[in-house]
Amino acid sequence: MSITETIPSLGSVPTTTEPSTFDARADTLLGTALPAMVAAENVWAGQANALALVVNADSLSAAASALTAIAAGNAVVWVSGATFTVGMGRYSPITGLSYRCIADNTGTTDPSADSTNWVPLNPDNAVNNIGSTGGGTQDINLSLGRLVNLTVDTSANTFTFSNPTASGTFDGFILNVTNGGSQTVNYPAGVDFVAGAAPTLTAAGIDTLVFLTWDGGTVWFCFVVGQAVA
């Protein structure tokens, strides 16, 4: 992930030592070059802020990973209908990821789909390759990984986000969308875009979006951090 915006040059500036070009250069500077530079600098600043937030999120994730490493290492496979108490560690036979029990239960629902009784210990390093969405509603289940890759096709797509960490803890994920601009893409109502409106996605290429929350997914802050034509 990097800053992709390039600050354009102002070009030839007007000078009183060259009166024959002064007016034309001044018009270009004030009417075209300077506004383009200001617009590019605003985009650059937005990408820099988003990158800083992602770096901060990575550092918090690394600290959390260190604290949970022992618990994750001691986890055994989850078995449907067994008795689980708060603090137990188990790994899902579906996702292979480790979870901690947060409520006593004898549940029959795999921890990856049971956010009432289980929380993921460290899904941040897992990659969730969804593939083609096929249109309609597409859930992004954070218990399956915090790097999500998908391809938009067929018809309008509506994304939903599930299993973020609880309110009061920092959470986020990276979404790589291929061909997002080829169809209509709808986001959850709680998404707050840094530019005030949903971004225009690339019709034939990849857009990288970062979503951050600290209130259990009630509000997600979204930044576009990269766009590349395929």
Topology, element by element:
Blueprint lengths: L18 H55 L2 E2 L11 E3 L6 E4 L16 E3 L6 E6 L3 E6 L5 E5 L5 E6 L8 E8 L6 E2 L4 E3 L11 E9 L6 E10 L1
Parallel strand pairs: 1-2, 5-7, 6-8, 7-9, 8-10, 11-13
Antiparallel strand pairs: 2-3, 3-4, 9-12, 12-13
Question: Describe it for me?
Answer:
The protein has 230 residues and is α/β, with parallel strands linked by helices. It has a domain at 76-120: Seminal Fluid Protein  PDC-109 (Domain B) (Ribbon), CATH 2.10.10. It has one helix and 13 strands; from the N terminus they run H-E-E-E-E-E-E-E-E-E-E-E-E-E. The strands form three sheets. The protein has a six-stranded mixed β-sheet. It has a four-stranded mixed β-sheet with strand order 1-2-3-4, with no helix packed on it. A three-stranded parallel β-sheet has the order 6-8-10, with no helix packed on it. Strand 2 (89-91) and strand 3 form a beta hairpin. The protein is elongated, with a radius of gyration of 23 Å.
Spatial order of strands in the largest sheet = 5-7-9-12-13-11
Distance between the termini: 16 Å
Give unreliable regions as ranges: none
Radius of gyration: 23 Å
Number-wise, the strands total: 13
Report the average pLDDT across residues: 82
Strand content: 25-35%
Sum up the overall morphology in one term. Answer: elongated
Helix content: 10-25%
> What fold name goes in the CATH topology slot of the domain at 76-120?
Seminal Fluid Protein  PDC-109 (Domain B)
Largest sheet: 6 strands, mixed
- In oligomeric terms, what are we looking at? single chain
In N-to-C order, the SSE pattern is: HEEEEEEEEEEEEE
Helix-and-strand structural type: alpha/beta
CATH class of the domain at 76-120: Mainly Beta
